[in-house]
Amino acid sequence: MLRFAQGYGEAIEGELIVSAHGFNARYDMDRQKGVFARPGHDLYGESIAGKIFVFATPKGGIATSWALADLRRRGLAPLAILCRRANPVVVQGAVLAGIPIADGFEVDPVEYLKTGQRVRLDPARGELTIL
């Protein structure tokens, strides 16, 4: 079990998809298809829909907030967002879209967690359990 300092949202279980890159929902994603569309991104062509998305850091400005909400409306949003260190924009976007979010892990989640693992995220308890 991993502990983290801050979280928001309901407890959820799902499969991980992990990226060592930063994330901007507006500029990295094709929001019509729900896949990474920026060449050079380590998840290029992949979808985060219905998965728990682990990434290094948020990047960019306020567009991520409404872009996450747009992905949610289209049914293409991640189940949850985990990152090394969130910023106010990605937190605002997660809350707006109703996506659980966590950061401040006791270990680096990008290095420790692997794509395909199933986990249970409990933001209220500050716990991530690998199933």
TrEMBL record:
The keyword Lyase applies. Residues 24-101 form the Phosphomevalonate dehydratase small subunit-like domain. It comes from the Bacteria. The keyword Flavoprotein does not apply. CDD domains: AcnX_swivel. This is DUF126 domain-containing protein. It comes from Paraburkholderia tagetis. Pfam families: AcnX_swivel_put. GO terms for molecular function: lyase activity. Keywords: Lyase.
